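Subject: sequence -> structure tokens, single chain

Hey, anyone have a minute? Need the predicted structure for the following. Not urgent.
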Amino acid sequence: MAAFIGTLPAGTIVAGAVKDDGASALSAAGYRALGELGCSLDIRGRFRASHAFIGVKGAPPGSALEDGLSFQGRVAVGDAGRGFSVGLSSVEITSSR
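Reply:
Had a minute. Here:
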């Protein structure tokens, strides 16, 4: 994942999600790579943690829309629900157990 994120040009919009256990295989390099997409949640060491995000390559950490520390993750953009209006018709990432 880190290598793939490294190949993306600045400004690329990336949506990602992992359900059930995104923490056990997340390395320090993977965490840093997610930071390049604006993510800031650190799920490493959290048992069976899910993570959902929408970020932009080159954005500062903390700027991505993300959820990952609860048992249910929801990230919505546009008119997909309780999201943000950014000119998209609908994008929603949902993870629940």
